[in-house]
Amino acid sequence: MISTGELQMEQKIIQHQRKRLKIKELKKFDLDLGFGIEYEKSLANILKMGKVEVKTERDKWFNTRNIAIELSYYGKKSGLAVTEADWWAHILTLDDKIRGVILLPVERLKKIVKNSVKSGSGKIVMGGDDEASELALIPLKDLANEI
C-alpha cells in the first residue's frame, strides 16, 4: 500500500521525469502510474478486507510442476471444497524461501481444478499424513493457461 510519504516521493519523481521526458511520453507515464496505484489499492483491499485462504506448497512442486489442493480429509470435505474465503493464495516455497504466490478468486480456482481434472491434465490422488487427504494435483501450466 502506498503511504502519503511514498506518494509525495512518486510525485517528486514525476516532476523530475517531466524535465527529461517528452510530453507524449509523460502522458503515458502518468497514465501508467495511475493504473499501477489503482491496482495496488485493489490488492491491499483484498488482503485487508477479503477473506483469503492461504496454503503453502513446499519444495515438491518445483520438480513435479504441480500444486496439491486438498478437497477432503478422512472422507470429510475440506480445503477448497468447503472454504468460505473469497480468494485463495498458494505460496510456493523452495528451500524454505518463497519463490512465488498464486492468488486467485476461489470460484475461479474451483473451475480451473474441475477443468484440469476433467481434461486429464490434473488428477485426484490420496496423500498427506496417513494418505488421508484427497488432493487435486494441478499442473502449474493449467493455472497459467486458465488465468
Give an account of the 3D structure:
- The protein has 2 domains: 4-49; 52-146, no CATH class.
- Helix content is 48%, strand content 31%.
- It is α+β, with helices and mostly antiparallel strands and 147 residues long.
- The protein has helices at residues 4-20, 23-49, 60-64, 106-119, 140-146; strands spanning 52-57, 66-73, 76-77, 87-94, 97-105, 123-127, 133-139.
- A hairpin with a 5-residue loop joins strand 6 and strand 7.
- The protein contains 5 helices and 7 strands, in the order H-H-E-H-E-E-E-E-H-E-E-H.
- 14% of the residues are buried.
- The strands form 2 sheets. It has a 4-stranded antiparallel beta sheet with strand order 3-2-7-6. Strands 1-4-5 form a 3-stranded mixed beta sheet.
Lay out the secondary structure.
Blueprint: H1 4-20, H2 23-49, E1 52-57, H3 60-64, E2 66-73, E3 76-77, E4 87-94, E5 97-105, H4 106-119, E6 123-127, E7 133-139, H5 140-146
